[in-house]
Design a protein that fits this description.
Blueprint: H1 6-37, H2 41-51, H3 63-70, H4 74-86, E1 90-94, E2 102-106, H5 108-133, H6 139-147
Antiparallel strand pairs: 1-2
Helix pairs in contact: 1-5, 2-5, 3-4, 5-6
């Protein structure tokens, strides 16, 4: 394949369309969460991921797992956790069996904020998808997102 290969060009254009859709959705949700709850998309995502933890074996996520779940580097995740911890939305604690392991948990205040912000996130997501569906280049991607069957 060369740089002018039509298949490579189509692939690149598809990737650009997907990136554009992601950017539009994230920006729309970011504005709504910031305005309504003083939360960024990343902060919301982190609270959401951590709220799905449960007590018992395998019920907690280590910082590396959290970083993977919110698609950030470990250092960026640590900074994000620190910001939310400073706001009283998260706590960190050492693993009982491995003192090197650090876990993060959502506080009651964090769960309350997440509960308040979830409808804002969902409404903003729906609005962003509806807006993007009006663009003929993005409409097939919107349909693909809507058709995804991902376990909760």
């Amino acid at each position: 394949m060369t740089a002018t290969d039509p298949a490579l060009t189509a692939l690149s254009q598809g990737w650009c369309a997907l990136s554009l859709l992601h950017g539009k959705i994230e920006a729309h949700i970011e504005r709504a969460l910031q305005a309504g709850h003083s939360l960024s998309v990343r902060e919301y995502s982190l609270l959401d991921v951590l709220s799905r933890q449960h007590n018992g074996t395998g019920g907690h996520l280590q910082m590396k797992q959290v970083a993977d779940a919110v698609v950030l580097s470990q250092s960026a995740t640590t900074r994000l956790v620190t910001r939310l911890e400073d706001r009283g939305l998260l706590t960190r604690y050492l693993c009982d069996t491995d003192r090197r392991g650090i876990y993060t948990d959502v506080t009651e205040a964090g769960l309350n904020l997440l509960s308040e912000a979830r409808p804002t996130n969902d409404t903003a997501l729906r609005a962003a998808l509806d807006e993007a569906a009006e663009n003929p280049e993005l409409a097939p991607l919107v349909r693909a997102v809507e058709d995804l069957k991902v376990p909760a």
